[in-house]
Design a protein that fits this description.
Layout lengths: L26 H4 L4 H6 L18 H14 L6 E5 L2 E5 L1 H7 L1 H8 L9 E3 L5 H13 L9 H11 L2 H13 L6 H10 L3 H13 L1 H4 L10 H9 L9 H13 L1 H4 L3 H5 L9 H8 L3 H4 L2 H26 L5 H12 L12 E4 L2 E4 L20 E5 L12 E5 L4 E5 L10 E5 L2 E5 L11 E5 L4 E5 L10 E5 L2 E5 L11 E5 L4 E5 L10 E5 L2 E5 L11 E5 L4 E5 L10 E5 L2 E5 L2 E2 L2 E2 L3 E5 L4 E5 L10 E5 L2 E5 L11 E5 L4 E5 L10 E5 L6 H4 L7 H4 L1
Parallel strand pairs: 1-3
Antiparallel strand pairs: 1-2, 4-5, 6-7, 6-31, 7-8, 9-10, 10-11, 11-12, 13-14, 14-15, 15-16, 17-18, 18-19, 19-20, 21-22, 22-25, 23-24, 25-26, 27-28, 28-29, 29-30
InterPro entries: BACK (IPR011705), BTB/POZ_dom (IPR000210), Gal_Oxase/kelch_b-propeller (IPR011043), Kelch-typ_b-propeller (IPR015915), Kelch_1 (IPR006652), SKP1/BTB/POZ_sf (IPR011333)
Protein name: BTB domain-containing protein
Organism: Steinernema carpocapsae
Length: 677
């Protein structure tokens, strides 16, 4: 039997099939049932409810294969497509089933739905052929030569799978040299996933990309998208400012109109004070624009507030006069003559800025980007097995990952940890057998922990904080008593000295410094958890009680953010807490904030990039490795990546070092737990 062949020796899909007699045949003759068989079958099993469904898994592939053969043989083809003078035979129902563009064309009574030949304009013939081939085979071949044509054609014909495949291919081969041109192409075709992937790549490699010639052709809108992001991977904010200026200077007449909106994307308060004064303020493009000058003025006010805070912080310790002189020189570089109280105004080019009328709330551009915000370290503690840890983990906020770095020399739980002078200090604690007076210091440059002078008193449940260049070890306990003693460590002389005792014994106390004072929060006096708090003035060498917290807390995380003191979680006697509160030093008053997602006693807390991170702890049933971050702007806690070990009683601190240093500090992530604890 011969049907519809196009000739030319094409394969006949009906070849080899014997002609059939299509006369009706009764069912009884075709399928005679044995009486014995029927009687042998349990009639109950013949009910419709016990029917069995069968599925031929190879059927879809076989149907596609047959349809492809039909098209190759021009069997039952009923439509012809033409692109660039090249004609392609196909079946309407296959095109309608596989390509939404044709389904819409054939089902809406368009003129083309009845035409035997349809002219396809603006799509390359080779791309159209591959899409028709995909409709019949479900396969597509993408390479660097055809990917843009295929993405363009797939977008027009609405073949989502092909578009996604093309975007995946482009992402796979993104480079510093091609990402900007691909981004422009993706934007033209509204490829949102591709745009997002390219922007992520561009932020990761911003320093290299911004130096490429094609970066100069980026649109103002695209540049703003990059510069607004906290994920921008930079070494310092100067790079961002210089990128803006370089982009404007490519075509000042056309691009100067975008200067204000682009400058607002630069986090000006993160610039060094001398650079802000000697480079930004006097740059001709900035100096000639009133709105730009206003942005710079706001940044200067922010820096001066930081100066005042630093001045208070350093002036509390006579041994830190060198650092105090440095902060005075910063303020002097703005034309400010230092005096004991806060400056009331600053004049820039005759425009007076009243500091009392400038906003004091959080200013978003003052927040550092993730790549310059620093690193959180989680040190020691104890976990499910009960033994203290030696292990140390560091958090890279930009990548949202925890990295294991070099272990401490000895195990420490309920250890005090702080960063000072570019180094990390682990002080006291318990090694599983004894209370410790020893202390050790980690230097990121050498990637080594080295011992420093021991404290005068062994203790665990200790809290440590810094004022100026001095480290203070506060409270703690041993097996017989909770302590009210406080020791001060001088980094330069490597010596510990006792200072004034607190008013109350405090084991498991929380400590943080704000301005020129040190705060001791809660703890346990040996009988019960405490809600009392006190403030230390190093100039007077005296502690005074301040307003009590709303809840009793021992083993709480304590930190400072935007001038407020935060108390996070902890234990009320044996009950772990999820509640949190903050203290306003100006009002001497505590108030509640949003609670965490779960109770956390013995939680470690640190501030990073304008957020508070609560790490690990114990929820009353188990040790935790989960971590959540609090954003004061939204009063919400949100989960971030977990630490690798469940632990409580760890020492947690923030350090002002670049997350990139973790690449050289990290140890083998596959190392056994026995080597890490």
């Amino acid at each position: 039997m011969s049907v519809g062949s196009s000739g030319g020796g094409a394969h006949d899909p009906m070849a080899g099939i014997e002609p059939m007699d299509f006369k009706p045949v009764s069912m009884s003759k075709r399928f005679p049932l044995s009486a014995a068989l029927v009687s042998a079958v349990d009639k109950a099993s013949m009910s419709t409810s016990s029917s069995t469904a069968y599925s031929n898994g190879s059927h879809p592939a076989q149907v596609l294969s047959n349809l492809s053969e039909f098209r190759s043989a021009d069997f039952l083809c009923d439509i012809e497509l033409e692109a660039e003078g090249r004609r392609i035979r196909a079946h309407r129902f296959v095109l309608a089933a596989a390509i939404p563009y044709f389904r819409s064309m054939f089902s809406h009574n368009m003129v083309e739905s009845r035409e035997p030949l349809i002219i396809i304009r603006d799509i390359p013939a080779s791309a159209l052929e591959q899409l028709i081939e995909y409709a019949y085979t479900s396969k597509i071949s993408i390479n660097s030569e055809n990917v843009q044509q295929m993405l363009y054609a797939g977008s027009i014909l609405q073949v989502d799978y092909v578009c996604e495949a093309c975007q995946e291919f482009l992402v796979k081969y993104l480079s510093v040299g091609n990402c900007m041109s691909i981004r422009k192409f993706a934007d033209q075709h509204n490829c949102t996933k591709l745009i997002s992937a390219i922007d992520h790549f561009s932020m990761e490699h911003f320093r290299d990309i911004s130096q490429c010639p094609e970066f100069n052709m980026i649109s103002a809108k695209h540049l703003m998208v990059l510069l607004q992001s906290s994920d921008l991977n930079i070494q310092n904010e100067q790079e961002v400012f210089e990128t803006v200026i370089r982009w404007i200077e490519v075509d000042p007449a056309e691009r100067a109109q975008h200067l204000v909106e682009l400058l607002s994307c630069v986090r000006l308060p993160q610039l060094p004070a001398p650079y802000l004064l000697n480079c930004v303020k006097i740059h001709p493009l900035i100096a000639s624009d009133y709105h730009c000058r206003d942005l710079v003025s706001e940044a200067i006010c922010e820096v001066l507030r930081t100066y005042e805070h630093a001045s208070n912080h350093f002036s509390c310790n006579p041994t830190t006069s060198g650092s105090l002189m440095h902060t005075h020189s910063i303020a002097s570089s703005f034309g400010y003559a230092p005096r004991p109280t806060m400056m009331q105004s600053y004049s820039m080019d005759g425009e007076s800025l009243n500091m009392d009328t400038m906003p004091t709330k959080e200013w978003t551009p003052s927040r550092p980007r993730k790549s310059t915000a620093g690193v959180i370290f989680c040190v020691g503690g104890r976990g499910t097995a009960g033994d203290p840890f030696r292990s140390v983990e560091a958090y890279d906020w930009r990548k949202d990952i925890w990295v294991k770095i070099s272990n401490m020399n000895i195990r420490r739980r309920h250890v005090g940890v702080v960063s000072a002078e570019g180094k990390l200090y682990a002080i006291g604690g318990h090694n599983g057998t004894n209370h410790l007076d020893s202390a050790e210091c980690f230097d990121p440059e050498s990637n080594l922990w080295v011992n420093v002078a021991p404290m005068n008193t062994p203790r665990r449940g200790i809290a440590v904080g810094t004022l100026g260049r001095a480290i203070y070890a506060v409270g703690g306990l041993d097996d017989t008593a909770c302590f009210q003693t406080v020791e001060r460590y001088d980094v330069e002389s490597d010596k510990w000295t006792n200072v004034a005792n607190m008013n109350v014994q405090r084991g498991g106390v929380g400590v943080a410094s704000e301005g020129k004072y040190l705060y001791a929060v809660g703890g346990n006096d040996g009988t019960s958890s405490l809600d009392s708090c006190e403030q230390y003035d190093p100039l007077l060498n005296k502690w005074r009680l301040i307003s009590s917290m709303m809840n009793r807390r021992a083993g709480a995380g304590v930190t400072v953010l935007d001038g407020y003191l935060y108390a996070i979680g902890g234990f009320d006697d044996n009950a772990p807490l999820s509640t949190c509160e903050r203290y306003d030093p100006k009002l001497n008053k505590w108030g509640p904030i949003a609670g965490m997602s779960c109770p956390r006693g013995g939680v470690g807390v640190a501030t990073l990039g304008g957020r508070i991170f609560a790490i690990g702890g114990h929820d009353g049933l188990k040790y935790l490795n989960s971590v959540e971050a609090y954003d004061p702007a939204t009063n919400e806690w949100r989960p971030v990546s977990s630490i690798s070990e469940c632990r409580a009683g760890a020492g947690v601190t923030w350090a002002n070092c670049s997350p990139s240093v973790l690449n050289t500090l990290s140890v083998d992530p596959n190392s056994s737990v026995s080597n890490c604890v």
